[in-house]
Amino acid sequence: MDAQKVDAFIMANGKFFPDYQVAAIRDMLLAADDSKWSMLQVMQFKDPTICLIISLFAGSLGIDRFFIGDTGLGIAKLITCGGFGIWTIVDWFLIMGAARDKNMQKLQMVL
């Protein structure tokens, strides 16, 4: 892919991925075929900040985990009322990283 396209993608979507992965993402995109560009433009990534806000307000119901696609964990969190509150508090610190990891997995599936 063209370096300008790759840099534009990283500038627009860098906040959706872990910081330590950005260089690897750039290398993967540079090595990718130009036919992948149209797929990359329409991809929707989960915003880690929105995940944190959801976790703060409805984390005990597991909605934050449902939002990022962890259905099993969302159901477990819903049944246990957020792990009796403990899991909810732990997720306040972990949910942004989990959202970024899910976005990275989604990008790797496309490439």
Question: What structural keywords apply?
Answer:
mainly alpha, 111 residues
Task: Report on the architecture of this protein.
By secondary structure, the chain is mostly helical. The chain has one domain (3-110). Helix content is 74%, strand content 0%. The chain has eight helices and no strands. It has helices at 3-13, 22-31, 37-42, 48-58, 63-68, 71-79, 81-84, 86-110. The protein is elongated. The termini are close together. The model has no long low-confidence stretch (mean pLDDT 91).
Count the E strands: 0
Task: Give the N-terminus to C-terminus distance in angstroms.
Answer: 12 Å
In this structure, how is the largest beta sheet organized? Answer: none
Which structural category fits the helices and strands?
mainly alpha
- The ordered string of helix (H) and strand (E) elements is HHHHHHHH
DSSP helix count?
8
> How many separate domains?
1
Q: C-alpha Rg, in Å?
A: 16 Å
Mean pLDDT comes to: 91
Low-confidence stretches are: none
Strand content: under 5%
Portion of residues within helices: over 70%
Envelope shape: elongated
